[in-house]
## 1
Amino acid sequence: MLARLGWRMSFAAPPGPRVLVVVYPHTSNWDFPLGILARFASGWPIHWIGKHSMFRGPLRPLFLGWGGIPIDRSRPGGFIEGMVEAFSSRPVMIVAIAPEGTRSHVNCWKSGFYRIALAAGVPVGLGFIDYASRSMGILEYINLSGDSAADMARIRAAYAGKGGLRPEHAGQIRLADEAGAPRDAP
């Protein structure tokens, strides 16, 4: 289906049965249907994180069946621990998350993906949607070192040249502790 829509996919096989995939940039509502199509095209049992309000009403069973995991962003406590436990208790788990946490511009990524991957000991897949080239996939997999500045520099380099549908909405690829500023400050 994606090929018929003019999209190319390039998915490197996961290095193991448990992976956390960050998907960047997330700048448009169109990222969601493209991501769902990519999930099915990959043939992998990919789960994805979405805001809890998406899971209300008649679409809830469909989204859950498509691998959705709802998160209430107004109550972040316990999410990281829950995801680490999920990775520990399942023999196979691939989870996709948008580290920006929104389609709007932010000064830095949320650090949850980083803390989950480190605590669970899972590699991070660098997923992308590039509207300019009409391509999507996973650039590479990295094992985080715990040196967030070095890890984020490597991630920034990998994503160079990838652009969302609304490039001005793309968040800066850095964590708050690296940025030295509040998450949403100008």
## 2
Amino acid sequence: MSTVREATYDLLRKHGMTTMFGNPGSTELPMLADFPDDFRYVLGLQEAVAVGMADGYAQASGTVGHVNLHTAPGLGNAMGALFNAQANHAALLVTAGQQVRAHMTMQANLTNRDATRVPHPYVKWSYEPPRAADVPAALGRAIHTAALAPKGPAFVSIPMDDWTEEADPEVTPHALERSVDGRGAPAPDAVAALAARIANASNPVLVAGPDIDASGGWEAAVALVESQKLPVWGIPATGGGRIGFPEAHPAYQGLLPPGIAAVSETLNGYDLIVVVGASVFAYYPYLPGALLPEGAELVQITSDPDEAARAPVGEALVCDPALALAALNAALEPAARDVPPERDGPMEPPDMGEGNPISGTEAMAALGAALPEDAVVVLEAPSATLALRNQLRLSRPGSYYFGAGGGLGFGLAASVGVGLAVPDRPVVAVIGEGSAQYAITAFWTAAAYDVPVTFLVLRNSEYAILKWFSLAEGVEGAPGLDLPALDVAAVAEGYGVPSTRVDTGEELREALGSRIGSGKPQLVEVGVAPGMWLA
């Protein structure tokens, strides 16, 4: 009979999970003993970075990512990244070592007290098997749980002396063979009812969310929009971890603003609002007002029962977004409505004057000019988020990843995971110099594993988003909002990533053009003018 370790690696192979992210400690070494040649271990120098890399890898690869953490301290370090992973609907198996079972009762050093409680509420399931023999079956359950909608992290705590014990001879073989398909099709009567409402509406609109991309629904979304002549809005950027519709499509109108009143005002005039693959909505800041325009109705399609239950308005169908879109296409005849108007092209960047830093808008326009069509963008630059979306107008599936939870540290770490998952696509990480500090050690992993990511660091010497919030909230005199003298390029060089600094838009275009797609990790840092860049 196989040991727990042998059975575990067989289980991971069966699920295609041969990449493991982690930062090992003494309680994890027994799991890593005799590490299989067909597996890849990706070392992160801090646990939150390891989780962020696994998050990006899971989303971009479409598999369950695996991250192994160091008992209680490592799990504690990772909590902010788990918060982001849950918001991103990233399927993660999170394992952590635990003290020897005989040591746990006396609470020896590094014992994870109440191990299953620590990661809540940011995991779907948390478990510590009662017997060593149960570990493979528990891991199998965690993998299935993570992969089922809504995808998210699942956690298993494993005592360090379990790995050389025998796996359960009856249960383990079945655990290795099981498969679970959780894609839920919408009920036919619900599809028929919604199709009739779309057909009879005078001015319906689609609001496209990230789970259209995650569920493989891009083509079905485009087909529905073109058949029904629907205008399309993207969900507020605060909650948009992925792009659910091609942003260069003529029907695409732009991003909804994040405030309650502003969303209602933007959607004024539509009588049926169909939100697909998103919550309703990721509002922030608090700007109260009507939840819907007068006379409008809202229907949400989501695979997440909690998103459906917590929506403050409208009706909801809980099912796979891609299957729902396909079913609506099958149920609807082409509409006779007028084609929606096209929005304006990207804004011309403002002239900041000779010798001054360029605008965030110009920086994003330079990136757009250098970006290949098949590129993937990972974003964590709050002051330039809207400028990037307006200037780049990304229009391929799997082309954009953003931390939907809002916790900083996702972007830099996730870009390394994305680069490992899709090495055949150019990956660009657009990172503010403040955001970079939360996952700065990811540069070492990028260099050590030769991950082909181009890092574009925007240096504005401030927390611009917080200064904007200060104005919005009427706050004066708050300390800690300036970031003088940060030198991300020098730090990245110290970790082994070749770096360069540029000042003008032309220099930025040239630097990016020669580095994106080079197959090597490289960094370009550009100074940008202070403030928020919204277009």
## 3
Amino acid sequence: MGMVRYIESNGTVHEIDVKNGTSLMQAAVTHMVPGIEGDCGGACACATCHVYIDPEWRQKCAEMDPLELAVLDFAWDVNEDSRLCCQITMSEELDGITLRIAERQY
């Protein structure tokens, strides 16, 4: 288990303990973190869990696969820090990760 810090676009911080093996989207939805919709239930089909990963955490996350990259084409304000948090699974290495929630999900 580890802690994940979600930061809303308005600066509000949510710190949540997440079990290893849980997707960071599912953890956010379970804890009702505003701004993470997860409309597709984690199937990497909707881009409603778009977040920005702080650069120091990017290398600790699994690499983005081609499907995630394609789905991000439908997201707003995509940059090099963009990820879909349904594709990131909690692990010991990610304890303390910070995710900035995109201002718009559609």
## 4
Amino acid sequence: MTKIISWNVNGLRAALKNGFLGWLEAARPDILCIQESRVLPEELDDSVKTAFGYRTHWNPAQKKGYSGTALFTLREPVSVTTLGAPAFDAEGRMQVIEFPEFTILNGYWPNSQSERARLPYKLDWCDAVTKFAAGLVKKKRNVLLCGDFNIAHREMDLARPKENENNAGYYIEEREAMGRFLDAGFADTFRSLHPDKVQYSWWSYRMAARARNIGWRIDYHCVNNGFLPRVKAAWIDDTVTGSDHCPVGVEIE
């Protein structure tokens, strides 16, 4: 089994102060995909970059202290590249991680922001990622897309759907983009294995939302449909604190 965890850490330096390394040692994923790393590798001690035998790969944004993706892995990938689209690569939005048996796309989906300020950028991103992932499947690759999608797909994926219809992450355009992605031949692993389970992966820091479990499920592991039978477990670990998101994981046979 290969244990893969995805976590938006909301700034790795802050997460390090909140027990990240202790969590990593205990959880011991084979592969950890991080979003919103918000750090340059040279800003970290080598002890972090080589912790517990992990190899690390970094994809920071050009703007310091913003966005970014990162990888901790116990085995060296064949390659780690990016989406190859300058508008998205400039923000460190995606790592394309090739292993012999599958490709992982570790992504940090843009936030559409209030008044739909970045919705066009996000929809362009969604279309580009769908096309890229489908292209890999056409080449007979098994593909896992994981990360913070910044989209609650269905009503059951957030605590208060009606109140959030005009809020970023639940705009109808975003939900439709998620639907188009799934219709292109991909499956939401958590929802596939737990069709009726209500569980969240993100909570606002305001209004004691986490304590009251007023959350959203916006962090996903998605696979091409042909790869789904090899996904033996999918979970959300909402006991883990240290970020406004919690880790989400899968085990693959």
